[in-house]
Amino acid sequence: MSAREAGILSRSLPGAPSSSTLTVIQPRRGWQPIDLRELWQYRDLLLFLTWRDIQVRYKQASLGALWAVIQPITTTIILTIAFGKLGGMEERTDVPYGVLTFCATVPWTLFATSITQAGNSLIASPNLISKVYFPRLIIPISSVLSTVLDFAIAFAALIVLMVGYGLAPHWGIVLIPAFVIQALLTALAVGLCLSALNVEYRDVRYMIPFLTQCWLLASPVGYSSREIPPSWQTLYGLNPMTGVIEGFRWALLREHTPPLGMMAASTLVILLLLVGGLFFFRRVERTFADVI
Questions:
Q1: What distance in Å separates the CA atoms of residue 76 and residue 166, rounded to the nearest whole number?
Q2: Within the chain, where are the H helices?
Q3: Rounded to the nearest 10 degrees, what angle do helices 43-58 and 138-145 cross at?
Q4: Integer CA distances (angstroms), 107 to 26, 172, 214, 276, 291, in order
Q5: I need a surface site. Which of 52, 89, 106, 250 has the fewest CB within 10 A?
Q6: Is 15's pLDDT higher than 80?
Q7: 3-class SS at 151?
């Protein structure tokens, strides 16, 4: 723990040379601010852990990076059958329903995978946490960043699908990085809370898949937000992934005018979740090494 965030006491060791001192690092209690300068000092470790997570994910996987495409395609097929065919929504869209759904599944998969990785990141690194000091925030952050490669592969497949249907992306594609960052920040905010709770309560790991499944149904992945009554759309935007998904669709498909109210509500919620997640993580991280 850095001297700035801990109380440091130094005293001479009895019976030892005068130059020998014992340094006792005592973690401060209560809510602690985020030390961005310290995170920057450990940027090399962040990059190393991110690359490690990518390598571990594809180690001895015969299909390799194809899994980055298989997962969103499978989800798209299931949603197309459930909502498009059986739910009759296929006839109420201006673009091919498969493209509409895949366009939402790509950012959703980024989000869901990031939550899962971040939520389990701390309990997957017990030796690192208990033996070496570094900012613990680096572990969930690296887990979230490691999912960007999968997203890039799936996004390339989405562009190929759009071209195959004769749908050329327009200038809004330049805003895609903004929506990707929003998805990552949302996943990080939730993942910080889940990872911290997971250290103390190991049942959390079993709740994460259930959480993402429920969140999927509450988000406009298999349907458009236009199915929601206009008077409820801003409230619906309190789901942070609503603004991300609808912004993603607008940026690529021009399916409708940008839902500014919904996107603004989602952005506000993302910021609140991130601040809350960061401070909660900092509040409890001093116990990780003892509990994990």
A1: 19
A2: 36-41, 43-58, 67-79, 97-119, 126-131, 138-145, 148-164, 176-200, 204-217, 230-236, 240-253, 260-284, 288-291
A3: 50
A4: 42, 16, 16, 23, 34
A5: 52
A6: no
A7: helix
pLDDT at 10 over 50: no
Q: What type of residue sits at position 259? A: P
Under 8 Å between Cβ of 261 and 292: no
pTM above 0.90, yes or no: no
Q: What residues contact residue 177 under an 8 Å CB cut-off, 6+ apart? A: none
C-alpha 271/C-alpha 268 separation (Å) is: 5
pLDDT tens-digit series, residues 39-86: 889 999 999 999 998 888 777 666 767 888 999 999 999 999 988 888
Tokens of residue 174, six digits: 């330049």
- Would you say how long the chain is, in residues? 292
Instruction: Dig out the tokens for 47 from the structure.
Output: 């990059």
Q: Is pLDDT of 145 > 80? A: yes
What is Dmax (Cα atoms) for the chain?
A: 85
Mean pLDDT, rounded, for 201-213: 92
Question: 139-164: buried (b, 16+ CB within 10 Å) or exposed (e) per residue?
Answer: bbbbbbbbbbbbbebbbebbeebbee
